[in-house]
Fold these 2 entries.
Entry 1:
Amino acid sequence: MKTILKSKSQELVIDTEGPVVIIGESINPTRRKKLVETLSQHNFEFAIQLAKSQIDAGADVLDVNVGYPGVDDAALLPETVKAIQQEVDVPLCIDSPNPRAIESTLKVIDGKCLINSVNGEEKSLEAILPMAKEYDAAVIGLVMDDDGITHDPEKRLKIAEKILNRAVKLGIKEEDVVIDPLAMAVSADPNACLITLETIKLVHDKLGLNITQGASNISFGLPNREELNMAHMVLSIWNGLTCPIANPNKITTMIRAADLIRARDDFALRFTEHYYSMEAMKS
Ligand code: THG
C-alpha cells in the first residue's frame, strides 16, 4: 500500500513495503515554552528553525501542532503552515483536535498533506472525512470511538475498519487512510504496549494500511525514556508500523538500522549516508 504525500514540489511515498518514513514531532508546544512565546507573537523563526533541523536529522514529513491553552489555532495553524512551507519543501501533517483549524489550514496548504486526525466518533467522522475528500488530503485514523478507548486489539481493528469504510464511502482512496493504533503509557497499564503491538499487527495483516504512532507516549512517567521508546519502536516496525511521529534527532539512527536489518536498505546506503551526514554536522 502506497500513501503519497506532496509538498510544493516534492512527492513522498509512504510504502508498507518500503523504508520507514519519519514524521518529525517537534513543532509542538508540549514542553517547548519558546515555541509558545514566539508563536503567540506571530514570530515563526523558531518554528522554521525546528523544521529545518528536523529535516537535517532525517524527518521526511513535519507534524505541525500549535495547540496551547488560550490559542486560536484556527487562525494560528494556517499562519504557521504558510510560514513553514515558504522555507522548507517537505509534506506536512496538520495536527489539531479542532476541525475548524484543520479546515482553515487545508485552504492554504501546498500539495497533499496528512490530516492528524480523525477518529471513530460519529462527530469526528462527519467533521473530518468530507474535508479530506474535498481538499484531497490523506488522514490519520485514531482507533477510538463513541465508546472511548478499548483495550481489546480486535475491537481496535474494528474501529480502524469502520474509519476506512466510512472514508472509502465518501470517495477517499483506501491508501489515504493511515491508522494510529493509540500508544499509551505502559507505566499506567502493563499491557499497554502489547495491546498497541497486537493492533499494529492486525491492521497490517487484515487491512494492509500504513500505520503511524507517537513515539514517546508509551514512556510517560518512567526513566530512560529514549531507550524504552526505541525498544517499542523497533517491535512496532517489525509488526507493521510505517510512519512514526517522532523526534528525528533521537530516532533516525535506529530507524535506519531497523530498515537495514529488514533488507529495506540495499548496500546500507541510507544507513551510511545518515552516518556521514551526522558526522558532517558535528564538524
Ligand atoms: N498520535 C498522533 N498524533 C500525535 C500523537 C500521537 N501528535 C502529538 C503527539 N502524539 C506526538 N508529538 C509529540 C510532540 C512532542 C513531544 C511528544 C510527542 C514531547 N517532546 C518533548 C520535548 O520536546 O521536550 C520530549 C522530546 C523527546 O524526548 O523526544 O514530549 O500519539 N496521531
Note: The two ends are 40 Å apart (CA to CA).
Entry 2:
Amino acid sequence: MSLWGGRFSEPSDDDLRRLNDSIDFDQALYAEDIKGSIVYSRALAQAGVITAAEADEIIAGLQQVMQEFDGGSFELAEGDEDIHTAVERRLIEIVGEVGGKLHTGRSRNDQVATDFRLWTMRAADRLQEELRLLQAALVSVAESHIETVMPGYTHLQPAQPITAAHWLMSFFWMLERDLERLRAAKKRMAACPLGSGALAGTPFAIDRAQIARDLGFCEPSENSLDAVSDRDFVADMLYVISICAVHLSRLAEDILIYSNAAFGFITLDDRYSTGSSLMPQKRNADPMELTRGKTGRLIGNLTGFLATLKGLPSGYNKDLQEDKEALFDSVATMHQLLPVVTATVSSLLINAEAMEAALTEDLLATDLADYLVGKGAPFRQSHHIVGQVVRLAAEREVPLSQLPMSALSVISEHFGEDVAQVFDYASSVARRNSYGGTAPGAVRGQIAQAKARMTE
Ligand code: ARG
C-alpha cells in the first residue's frame, strides 16, 4: 500500500513502480530524513498541532527506525516508494496511528529538498577534508624540492626553467580555489526548505527559523515555491566537483607525462602503478588515467543534470528525482579518486637528476634577451637578436653558450664577456623572485602562505 493510495481504485502497474520508485538509491538519505522528522515533530508540538506527549512517542519511534537503519536491520516493504514513505510506514508500524500525525502540513517536496540539502552539506564537509589532505601532500613534496630545477613548459614545449616545488604548488592553489567554491556553495545551500509544504507554505504555526537552526541550516528559505522546486544547490555541487576533477585530471596528465620513460622526471610508487598482462616490462599509471577518465563522467553528471532542470515548469516536478543519482555518483567518484591521488602524490619519487639532465640552454633564451635589456637594448630588439643567436647555434649544432664571442658580436654589439653568467639554470630561477615567481625564495613565501591557509 502506498501512502497516497486513497484516490486510486487500482494499484500501480509494476513497470511504473520500477520507474517511479527511488528507494533503491535514496535510502542513503535515511539519517537526514529521520533527523528532519524529529525536528519537525518538535515544531508541530510547539505550534500546538500535536501534544508534547505525541511528539515524544513519534520521536521515540523515529529513533528506533534510525537504529534499524544504522544496524542494517531495516526491512523494506511493498509500497516503500522512497525513503520518506519507508520511514513513515515503519514509524506507524512502531507507534501506531499517532505516527500518522507527523506529516501534518509537510510534503515530500519540502522534505526531500531539506534532506538532500543536509546530505549535500555533509558531503561538502567530507570533500573539504579530503582536499586538504591532497593539499598537504603537495606541500610536503614541494618542500623537499624547492631547489630542484626542471624544464617548465608552454604548449608542452620547453619554455623556461622552473623549480619542481613551483610546479607542485601550482596545484595547491587550484585546489584552494576549489575549496573556496565548496564553501561558497555550502553557504548558499544552507537555507532550510522545511515548512514550505508542497509549494505554498503551511497554515500551521511552526517556527521555521527554529527548525532551520535545529537542523544546522543558517536560515529558513525565503520562498516556498522556489524552495521545493529548485536544485541549483545540486548543480553548484556538481560544478564544484567537476572543476576540481578537471584540476585533478590535469595533475594526473602531468604525472603521466613526467613518469613516461622519455621524461623520467618522476617514478610512481609500486602501490600506485599497474602492470600489463602481456608485456612483462610495463609499468603503467592506470590510477592517473582513471582520474583523467572519470573527470569526463563527472562533467557528464553536471551537464546531464543541467539539461534535466532547464525546461521545468514552476513547482516540484518528478524530474527532480534525477538529482540524487547524479550527485551520489559524483560524490562517490570523488571519494574514490581523492585518496588515490593523494597517495600517488605523497609517494612520488622525484628524480632531480633526470629533471636537471632535461634542461637545455634554449630554456635560457629569455634570460639572454633579458641580459641584452640590461645592456640597454629595447626588449623587442633583444628578442630578435636572441632569435638570430638561437638560429646560429642550431645551424652550428652547438649549445648557446658555446658560440664564440666573435660570432655573438657580429649579431649584436651589446654582447660582452659577462654573457657567460646567463648560462646557469639555478641563477635563472633565482632571478624570478617576483611575488608568486619560481625562485626558491619566492616559493618559500608561497609555501608559508599555503600553510597559513591550511590552518585557517
Ligand atoms: N522521491 C522523490 C524525489 O526524490 C520525493 C518527492 C516526491 N514528491 C512527489 N510529489 N512525488 O524527488
Note: The pocket of arginine is lined by residues 22, 26, 82, 108-109, 112, 316, 318, 320-321 (CB under 6 Å).
